[in-house]
Design goal:
With 340 residues, this protein is an alpha+beta fold. The protein has 19 helices and 7 strands. Helix 15 packs across helix 18.
Length: 340
Amino acid sequence: MAALCHDVGHLPFSHAAEKELLPDDWDHEKMTREIIVSDEMKTIWESTVPPLLPEHIEKLATGPKKAPDLEFTDWETILTEIIVGDAFGVDRMDYLLRDSHHVGVVYGKFDHHRLIDTLRILPPAQSGEKGKSQEPALGVEEGGIQSAEALILARYFMYSQVYFHPVRRIYNIHLTDFLREWLNGGEFATDLGSHLKMTDNEVTSALWEAAFEEKVGHIHAHRIVRREHFKCLYRRNPEDVAINPESGELVFKMLASQYGEEHFRHDRYRQKSGAPDFPVRMRDGRIISSIALSEVLSNIPVVSVDYVFANRQFFDEANTWLNDNRHTIINKPEEEEQDG
């Protein structure tokens, strides 16, 4: 039941505008918890044979990170890892395989059969440190390390090539702009009744209606429906970052000052961490860290993007202006930029 219900709290279009259009202390995991322990669902849990406890389902569907107010036993933590774990959670395995299939790319494919066959519940890596936590975790046999590497590489390539593709990202931004104007109060409601009534269908219908009529959110809906999205004018460049880590922000601000902020969007994201560290049982029985064993995993880069998008009407002119002024903008001292 936890596996079936772990994503019931998702908003329309999944993660598209979750951070921007929910109150600060809300996310889809909190909404999931609210649904699972609601009176309507409690009736369903209690009617099963044997009866189920909603607090058990709530725990396993979200995990300790998203439910820090709940107490988890070691075994509950393991069961949670199987569903939503960072390394081997079936949720992550599933979306990589499913998304790569439907998008039509091979980046997200890996030998999930071999990986699942070699998964084990293992103690932490033997570091020799006294007092270190001995809580078990999901890991793999030595023979499954290549499948685990393939999973982590698949995730990296799907993020860098699909999820953070500039065209996909700008449609996120246009959709967020539309929803901010269209939704009552500029954000999603958090009461269950309103949440359950708001689906992809309602948003899609509103988009089409607003795209062809002068209604709330018209300009953003028109860009989405007519595929007149902003074009990527600037993207992260290692040479620029070496000179000024805030190069994307500077480019955005200077373009906004030159032509007007409404004609540009800035999109910046950096992954919090690289490959997860998990235990690996070697053929001689020792347990070691996956990062220590695998040079592939220890060198997986983090996904980092920094895009500046421009309105098509200004793209050519802004591109010419940026090419003429790029050196000056990137080399602009931070203190001078703040003073300006």
